[in-house]
Amino acid sequence: MTLGLAAMLALAGASRAGVLYVPNYDFASPDIGTNSPYAAPVLEDWQESAQPSWYDPAYFGGSPWSDLVGTFYNLPNFTNSTATNSSYIDNCDGVQAAFMFALPQVAIFQDLGATFDIGKTYTLTAGLIGGGGDMAAGSTFQLSLYYLDGTNMVTVAQTTVTNTQDNFPTDTHLVDFEVQSPAVKATDPWAGQNIGIQLLATPDPNNPEAWGGYWDMGNVTLVETTPLNLINPALTNGQMQFTVQSEPNTVLQILAATNLSLPAANWTSLATLTNLTGNLPFVDSATGLGQRFYVARPSP
What is the 3 state secondary structure string of the chain? Predict the structure, then answer.
C-alpha cells in the first residue's frame, strides 16, 4: 500500500485467534465400542457425499456406497497368545478415528455455524494416514473450505495430499495437512456465508486400476486468524500514520527504511507495541522525510 512517498508492508506471523467449533472433530461419536470388528460405517454430524451414478456395489464386493466411510476404534497396542496389534495410531485425539475408501467422489463434509468474516483467514487441518489397504502410490486426497451458493458447494480454498512414502512413512502416526483461505474481503461472495469443510478422496477418475485402499483421518481443526496488516495510511502535518491490524494482544515491532532492499537487520526500529484491541493506530514522529517504507512484524 503506497501513499505519496511512503509505503507499508506487513510480515507474516500473526498469532491465531483460536479454534472454531467442528462437531465430532475427533470422530468420537458414535461410540462404536471395543469389540470386533472395531469399525462401523457410521459418523455423526458429518454428511457423506451422494452415491454417483457410476457406482454399482456389485463391482465393489457388494459394498453399498454408505459403507465407504465410517469410524474405527484405535485399538491399543497389545500382544497375546493369539494376536498382535501393530496398527495403533500414537497421536490420535481420543480413541476413535475415521476411514475413507480411495474411490472417486467419496467425501465427508459439514456446513458449520461459523461464518467467513471480513478480514479473517481460515485454516482447516486434518490428520491423515495414506496407503491403507494397498492404496496405490500417487493416489490423492483433498481438503477444502467452501460455502453454499444455494445448494451448490463453491470452493474457497483447497489443497491436495498425495500418497507417497515420504508423506506417510508409517501407518501408525497421523500427519497434519492444512488448507488456508485468503483473508476475506467485503467483495468476496463468501463473505458472511457459513463455512463448509470437506474431506474428499480424489484418485484418478480415469484410471480405475489405481482405485482402492483407504485413508485414515483424525484431529480435524478449524482456526480463525486475523492476518497482520497495515491499513488506512495518511499524511498529517508531514507525519505518516496508519493502523496496524493483528490478533488482539499481539506484541509488534514497527520498522522503517528508505530502501526496500535493505536486509532486515538494517531497518530502523521505531517502536515495540502491544496491539491490545487488534487495531492499533501508529504515528511516525519523523517529518520531512522522502521515500520511506514501513514494516510491522511480531516481536521476537
Answer: CEECCEEEEECCCCCEEEEECCCCCCCCCCCCCCCCCCEECCCCCCEECCCCCCCCHHHCCCCCHHHHEEEEECCCCEECCCCEECCCCCCCCCCEEEEEECCCCCEEEEEEEEECCCCCEEEEEEEEEEEECCCCCCCEEEEEEEEEECCEEEEEEEEEEECCCCCCCCCCCCEEEEEECCCCCCCCCCCCCEEEEEEEECCCCCCHHHCCCEEEEEEEEEEEECCCEEEEEEEECCEEEEEEECCCCEEEEEEEECCCCCCHHHCEEEEEEEECCCEEEEECCCCCCCCEEEEEEECC
Q: 213: pLDDT confidence band, cut at 50, 70 and 90?
A: very high
Closest CA to 277 of 242, 244, 241, 249: 249
Residue 99: give its domain's CATH number: 2.60.120.260
Domain shared by 103 and 248, yes or no: no
Q: Which parts of 45-176 fold into alpha helices (H)? A: none
pLDDT at 16 over 90: no
Residues 50 and 192 grouped into a single domain: yes
pLDDT of residue 223: 96
Q: Is the pLDDT of residue 20 over 80?
A: yes
**pLDDT at residue 85 above 80?**
no
Structural domain boundaries, residue 51: 31-225
Question: Model-level pTM?
Answer: 0.81
Are 68 and 169 within one domain?
Answer: yes
Residue 236: which CATH number?
2.60.40
**Number of separate domains in the chain:** 2
